[in-house]
Amino acid sequence: MLYIKAPAKINLTLDVLYKRPDNYHEVEMVMTTVDLADRIGLERRNDGKIKIHSSSGIVPEDERNLAYQAAMLLKNTYNIDAGATISIEKEIPVAAGLAGGSSDAAATLRGLNQLWNLNLSIDTLAELGAAIGSDVPFCVYGGTALATGRGEKIQHLPSPPTCWVILAKPGIGVSTAKVYEGLKLENIEHPDTKQMIQALENKDYSLMCRALGNVLESVTCALYPEVGFIKEHMLRFGADAALMSGSGPTVFGFVNSESRLHRVYNGLKGFCDEVYAVRMLGQRNSLA
Question: Out of 15, 38, 104, 135, which one is annotated catalytic?
């Protein structure tokens, strides 16, 4: 059995520039991986079948699963006779704006590349991943990056300054499509992506906190007030900055003092079931 780590991501910035002719939105996002991860187990099968087993009762175990789609994409593209049993031990909350499904797919691509001896480059795997979902190329690489296009064009960035990240997910699911439908492009206040990149290049924690921005946050908060409630309390309990990740509903906050970390974490646990204290990973994945 081969095991691959599939880390969650957070959006330090998320900007939407315009609606494209193909109905996707042109985006500009700075993303980084955090140390909250699913564990993907891969075992070779000789019957050519792809079988999914998940520890979560709400993750599909059929062709709807992105890890299944990743395996089938490799099989069909490279005419692979072998199959695989894919076990997904979920730690990342489902439908949370943390790219859990995309990261599982990316880990499956990296793992099957090894299990099936395909010897594909990480760039090739990222390119393949774009056919599965917009976040998959970033998750193949991991680390910290600027993602443009519909999210599939990746430019690597320096890792963020060291701090604690607190993640809090309310007990709701958010429809990404519904959030994008509610976005009024003419009214949005665009985050300063260049300033965020500068903060990363200079390892400037204060500037990173100030440069956080997500144009989807106000839309999601209007649809799901719980998200705004969590962000407000995260800041009140002592986080230096807080932001919703992706289309939500997870909110993350930055803290660089351990005493305040406990205060924020314990305060949120009082009314939110899914709260995590993690670090940002920063480094890129390798194919070793």
Answer: 135
